[in-house]
Every structure is written in C-alpha cells, then in structure tokens.
Design goal:
This protein has 356 residues and is of the alpha/beta class. It has an eight-stranded parallel β-barrel with strand order 1-2-4-5-6-7-8-9, surrounded by seven helices.
Length: 356
C-alpha cells in the first residue's frame, strides 16, 4: 500500500492539485495558485516527441521556478520508447517532483495520434507506456486517466488496476469518458469505486467548482487528493476556499472587485517576468483576463477592451477606468456578484488567445 501522494507533504490529509491544462497551467498561473493554497501543481501537458526532438517551444513548456514545487511534469504520446526517452530527459534536465502520464486529454488532435485518452482504447498499450516510463526514471511515475473512451468502454476500475499493475505510483481520475468531453456530470461514484479497488493513492477530478465541492468530493469518494481544473479559471482563490472547506473552517469571502483586479495585475506581472516578452505575455494572458472578468457588471464591454491589450500599462489603465466608473455605481464595495444579464453571455473567451 502506497499511502502518500508523490509530491505532497505528509502533513496534509488531502492535498489540493492544480490540474495540467494546455494553455492555462503555465508557470505564472501555477505560482499564483500555489500562493492561494494549491499544494501541488502540474505542468501543461507536453509532447514526448517534441521533447525528444528538442523543439524549442516544447522545452519552454517545461520551465518552472523552484517556488512552484512540488510540481509534476505531464507528458503525452503513444510510443512507449518515446515516452521513456522523454521522461528520462525531463528527469535529467528539470528534476520535477514526479512525472505524470496523460491518458485523459480528449482533444481531437491528440487522440487522432492515439495519445491522451485515445490510449484508453488499448489498455495493453497503456500498460506498456507506464512500464517504459517507470523503468526509465527514478522519479515517481503517476497517471491521469478518464473513466474510459466511451460509454461502451467505460471501465474505470479495470483501467486503474491495470495502471497500478504496470507501476503507476498514484492515479488521478477525471470521472468522464472521452466522448463526454467536458459535458454532463462527472461520476464521483466511479472515483469511490477506484479508491476501493486500488492500493495506490487516488486523486479525484471533475466538477470541483467551489471550495465546498472539494469537501463533498472527499466525503463522497474517500479520495486521497482533489484536483481542480476549470474551477480555477479566473479564480485561483478557489484553493483557499477548498482548503478552508476541507479543514472545516469558515470559507473566505470572495474577492472584491478591486481585490480581483489586484490579482489580475499580479498575474500579468508574473507573466511578463516569465515570458520576458511583454507583448507576447499579454497575448497569452488575454484568456485569463477574460475569465477573471466573467460575471462582473459590464463585463462583456470590459473584456472587449482587454482582448486587445498589448502591454501591462494598457491593462492597468483599462482596469483603473473600470473601477472609477464602478465606484460611482457601487459595484466595488462587496465581493463581485454575477450580473444576471452578464452571466447569460457566452462570447468565446478562448478566441482572445490567438488574436494579435
């Protein structure tokens, strides 16, 4: 029985994880989540082939600061030998606290090459990849899976047992299938079933939107850790709320509008320091700025301005102008509340990423 999650200290009964998310879990955001109480963070998922080829942009994804520790690096691919080579390089060059294997990504461009959740259609391949990676490195090898490829191939307990047999030291289950993508509800009963079936620690993932959701997941499933993904978008403070809920303490108040903007600017400065190219950092940050402003009165107009920023000075000016208008209307005196009209809008936040 392995009773402690790789990367998590022994003093925490239920560590909180920031999920690996492409285009989201970059170093600046990871550092912010750590400040708010994430106990362990995981990198964006990185292509094993890109690592082997020495692709410059791929290697950029692997960079992290020691302040982010404990941290895992997540890799994906469908060739056991390539995955082993990539894991070995990650260990030698970056020395994270563990290496995680992605068997959960549902993106078409990944599964079309049999990577991510595409591997779940071939469980012997899943085991071959885990064995190859675990044999290649000294660091703990962990895995992130979904409940299966489809409803017809929904066998989370079998998948988890195979991962354990192949050498995984811990496992995260996002309790949806690949065909569900991010729709429907995560089946927490499946997390509980996996916890009961395996001897390795299990981290629960799926539909943790509030601090209290983290508490309910632990109580419902008995999971050893809780991983937060989309619930962190524009809300890194969810980790503080989750820790309070897990510890049985009063949940902290939601940030006021000025406090939320101060966090946005901290994120922006982190991004510039990490990227070393202010223009590029601001383009990458636009999606985060959109998420931070969801639910604010007049948020749609605010996002239209923020999606065009190219510098920190522009962000500071736009937020200052918004606060000046908001003060005259009483919007800034309490925690940000969702505007009923604003919450019905669904403009594509992600579209801001590629706009130059």
């Amino acid at each position: 029985m392995i009773d402690r999650l790789p990367g998590a200290g022994p003093e925490l009964a239920t560590p909180l994880y920031l999920a690996p998310q492409a285009g989201v879990s970059e170093s600046p955001f990871r550092r912010l989540c750590r400040r708010f109480g994430a106990d362990v963070v995981v990198s964006e998922f990185v292509s094993a082939e890109g690592i082997r080829r020495g692709d410059r942009r791929t290697w950029e994804y692997l960079r992290f600061d020691d302040a982010e520790r404990p941290i895992g690096v997540q890799i994906f691919g469908a060739e056991p030998a390539a995955m082993a080579d990539a894991a070995r390089l990650v260990e030698e060059v970056y020395r994270p606290d563990f290496v995680d294997i992605n068997f959960g990504c549902p993106a078409k461009k990944v599964v079309s090459r049999n990577g991510g959740s595409g591997c779940l259609r071939d469980l012997p391949l899943v085991q071959s990849i885990i064995r190859a990676v675990a044999a290649a490195i000294e660091l703990p090898t962990t895995v992130k899976i979904r409940s299966g490829w489809s409803e017809e191939l929904r066998h989370p307990v079998e998948i988890a047992l195979r991962c354990q047999e192949a050498g995984a030291r811990a496992l995260t289950l996002h309790a949806r299938t690949r065909t569900q993508m991010y729709g429907g509800r995560a089946n927490w009963d499946e997390i509980a079933a996996v916890v009961a079936a395996v001897d390795i620690p299990v981290v629960g993932n799926g539909d943790v939107w509030t601090g209290d959701d983290a508490r309910r997941m632990r109580e419902h499933t008995g999971c050893a850790g809780v991983m937060i993904a989309r619930g962190s978008h524009g809300a890194p403070w969810i980790f503080a709320a989750a820790r309070a809920a897990l510890d049985g303490r009063l949940l902290p108040a939601e940030p006021t509008v000025p406090e939320r903007f101060a966090i946005m600017l901290e994120h922006a400065r982190n991004a510039i320091a990490f990227e070393r190219d202010e223009h590029r950092a601001m383009i990458e940050l636009r999606k985060h700025l959109g998420w931070y402003t969801k639910g604010l009165p007049g948020g749609k107009a605010l996002r239209q301005e923020l999606f065009a920023v190219r510098s920190l000075a522009q962000v500071e000016a736009i937020l200052a102008q918004y606060l000046e208008r908001a003060r005259t209307r009483g919007w800034t005196d309490a925690a940000a509340e969702v505007d009923p009209l604003e919450s019905t809008t669904d403009e594509p936040v992600e579209a801001a990423v590629g706009a130059a």
